[in-house]
Amino acid sequence: MKYSVARPSSLSSSQLSSLGQKARQFRRYAGYLLIVLPVIVLTAGCGGSDSSSDSSDGDIERAGHDEIVYDEANRTFSFPNAENEIIESTLDEVQRDLNGALCGQCHPRSAESFKNSVHYSLKARTDRVMFPGGGAHGAIDRACGLPGTSALVNYTSDINLGECAKCHAGRYLPVMEGAFASSFSQMGLPDPEGQAENIVNSGIDCLVCHAEVYSSVPGGEHLVVSDHAPDDGASPTPLGYAKAAHDNGDFNQDGQPDPQVDTDGDSLPDVPLMMDTDNDGQPDTPFTTVAQDRSLEAIKSVTYTSEHSCLRCHEHARTGYKRATLFLDGYDVHATATHGPFDGTLNRCTVCHSASHHKFARGHNVGGDLAAADYPPPPPGVELDPDDPTNVMCTTCHNPDTLPTDSGVSGEMSVHSNRHLKNIACETCHIPLSGGITYSVYGEGMHLSFGRNADGKDTKLISADHMLAGDRADVDSDYLAYKMPATLVWFNGGSSFLAQTLAAKGSENAKITPFKPMANGMVFDARFFSGETVKNDAGADYNAHSMYRFYANKDDASGIGNAEVFAAMDMLDLTPEEVRKVTLADFKSTDPDRQAMAMMQIFPNMIHFDKSVYGYEHYMISSDPKFDIWDADSNGILDAGVDFHFSRYDAAKAGLMKFKGFNGPMGLPDDYDWYPPFESTDDLVTMKLPDGSLMKMFLAMQAEGMGTTEALKWLAAIEEYPAFSNGVTLGGHGVRPKEEALGAGGLSGCRDCHASGGMMTNPIPVTRKTPVDMPGMGTVELPQYQWHFYNIHELANLGLTVEDEDIVSGDTDVDIDGDSTLVRVADQNTMLLNWFAPTAPVPTGFLAYTPADDPAILGSVGLTADDLTKNDGSWMPVLEPLTDFAPNYRVLGYDSTILWMD
Fold this sequence. Notes:
It is built from 30 helices and 36 strands. By secondary structure, the chain is of the alpha+beta class. The chain has a domain at 13-122 and 168-303. A hairpin with a 4-residue loop joins strand 16 (439-442) and strand 17 (447-451). Helix 1 (19-25) runs antiparallel to helix 7 and helix 7 (176-186) packs antiparallel against helix 8.
């Protein structure tokens, strides 16, 4: 989509004459990355007018807000501000600008403090993530197979799908403040920076946290409402979203986008934000915005936060979207605690997650989920201080010196022995179970999700029923249908860019920690395996279709490009010049940023695809009319029995086009490509990554500086590195009563871990690897991969018709392992994937990367090319690592002697 600026009728040509120069002046702004909504223009003559709105009588008397008076006849609020001056604001003004017209008058610093929190920024600096953007990591830059791609592309994708803005407390992505300022400056508008700040501040949703009454679908006949929005408008919705409607700039719902921009300098907005979506240089579409409940009822209900207001957004745990360890009675002892700090509390969440100036304390050692944190954690391996007010630990409240020993058991035999407390995180015993999704895969044709079976395989199809919350019995069955024991790994806070632990037995201050395994079936650039190379500024060859290309690409004429943009967004800790001079030799650098960037050279590029174009996830179907044929009853859920197909290829192309929206403001040519465009669906591959081999290789390098004895111990400790990507620390949620903790019941409870059938023997997938001699690199273990083929239409029908209660009772089986009508594995054709040299020869008996439609591979599973989803068939190919299953004690670096109770 081409970037352009349509001139408002009130602007002269002279005001627009210096656009190119002003574009360069604003490079310090992150936002000219017009990523989410790539073309911003303004149009005059669309001013709003009064409209009917929900209202009720009387003063607002809540939590110290009793001085706010609402005049129903005039639809006007009056109240004393922070300087005790009487302010009047209309309901229309409040609905357009809640902060400026109401909340910010008495809380003038709240917007600033909120914007400095991760609940707004979606990112935070951390030295714990091995990633070239580790300096600014979080949801904003995380390409993840669970929600699907990234917030940068999908903040507002489609109202029926899981767009990020359905929960986050802002109308606009944080980077849009810079985008607006840059665009306004180019257009010669007065005070571009101030106007941009006011627009972004006007979109802060104070009420989603601070109102007792909040609707996912506020009133208004001009809303675009999700097809699966609840009839009662409750927030969160049964699908777990705080909001379920778009207002698209018409905040007062009078049928016209509200004015937001001041074009004549009188400090009053007179034109709305619009977009040019057809590249004709003229505005045609209102700026997409998720509707916030700013109704009189919501405003009247302003009060202190509660667990309910937190769970409007953090309810996702129920589906296994993240931890699947519920904050409910019966699942977490803190959910019903009434003693100690919980006595009389209004919000059990903030008892532990203490809040100040919109910043929340969270555990420093729960970084495996890659979520941003308000308070920077110490580097990996640094011992955590239980008295640190910015850190939440079990020992923050529970003094380990007062822990009880087991009745009749003492010393080193106690579950609370010094040896256990030194080496095992409290959560390991007290949060023994998780559940929900462990594998999420977007392919050509469909998005699928699976849970883990008792054999350690991610083959239990997630049902549509699992994604929807009903009554308490339904929630219980959703959890029970997919519950599983945690995966135990060593963890000291360090994570890879795909949330793999960077610790092993013997790592400094590492403890055995429970993780919920999560594997991402991401969309990658299949051209990586062609081995094509290009040179960077260091004169070094690198793979032309690697993740590194997405960071290092530039325009030859101007010398600027992707790296400058990421640096402006604070998503790089290297300078653009440093980025473009990284070589594979930096893989062994002592600088983790250079290490990570070097690793990007041997990693296929992850695709930022547009979910609104893909049109499907978790049985939810897009609201776009072109998908109506697959949702005849218009309930937002895929119909059973229909012959559907969702295009990964079209979504990937659209994702790349969204990045081109900033080309003009950055001074780049209009036709500058962030990355080589895709020309065929064969340019893409869906892979279950990572397999663990790269992280094992990284950990193995650390042995080079050790003595022989220490190195052998270290290499033995990492031998069985687990094959999962987005592993999630179970944190402090889902804490079971002590009677249900591992080891409860004295010496007999030791069997929970130290006997066959216990946690230590839980099967964990480990990628099967083959050692290969690589010139100049020594012996490298290459991962073995196989093509899996999923029958998407039969799987959809199974998932749409099964109830989780029937899974729990055993009346229905959703484990597809070994069911050739649902999944087939090309086990006769095993590939070795060489990340360093994809086209290098492989040992006899193996294949190099081979496309799924190779006749030999298809023949091994009894399929033809016509059966594949890329040809509108039913079988979706996914490249997955070949795994063996090691008992958890071997993954931890122990031998069978740890099962001493056998």
